[in-house]
Amino acid sequence: MSMIKTVDVSKKFLGKNGRGPLQVLKDVSLTVEQGEVICIIGPSGAGKSTYLRSLNRLESIDSGKIYIEDKLLFDCANGINSVHIPYAELNASLLEVGMVFQSFNLFPHKTVIENLMLAPMHVKKVHAETARKNAEVLLERVGLSDKTDAYPSMLSGGQQQRVAIARALSMEPKIMLFDEPTSALDPELVGEVLGVMKGLAQAGMTMIVVTHEMGFAREASNKVAVMFEGSILELTTPQELFTNPKQERTKQFLNSVL
User: Fold this and answer.
1) Given 9, 185, 189, 228, which residue has the most CB atoms within 10 angstroms?
2) DSSP codes of every residue in 122-187
């Protein structure tokens, strides 16, 4: 079963200073099967983050189709979705998709465990005691069981991002989206976050990862998609991509980052 599928997804942003609209996504089609890890790489401004944000409604799309777990949720033309399903059903499908951002976005006035308990209790109506037990398990999973009562300001950037990953997992998603989760970290802290993500991949979590970490893309992904100017230029295995890229623009990009 495909967990996420997009067909010809397109998106424009209004241009600045009176300029015409900027096409940020151009007919992007991608299918992610259950348990797959797909990394999306490419230069800044290629549309990678916009594509990721379109999958969970953080960005609207102008045209194209988006499926989650083989269910068609969006079939858009001229920015209008022709799929009419009850809000509760749509929301339930979108809750299957967790997301981790570049910035950690933790609530600074709440402790680590309170950050993890908040959404399950308020969105899923999980009892506080159950939410706390689940949060403790997740903190142990990301190696932070000793930071239960710490506040975000007391943590390193890498620790905060691991808390953010645990917070996303607290909603028990079937799919995880990562939008350059290590880009805001000092180089020495990147490894601890990538280690948690590799553990999720090995456990069978379906993941789409926008990243500049070529080592992670090479080691942890099933497929790598290369985006340029809003389009997927290549989609293949990491071994094939890094040893025998087909497109000249892909070769140029890889030469600049490797």
Assistant:
1) 9
2) HTS---HHHHHHHHHHHHHHTT-GGGTT--GGGS-HHHHHHHHHHHHHTT--SEEEEESTTTTS-H
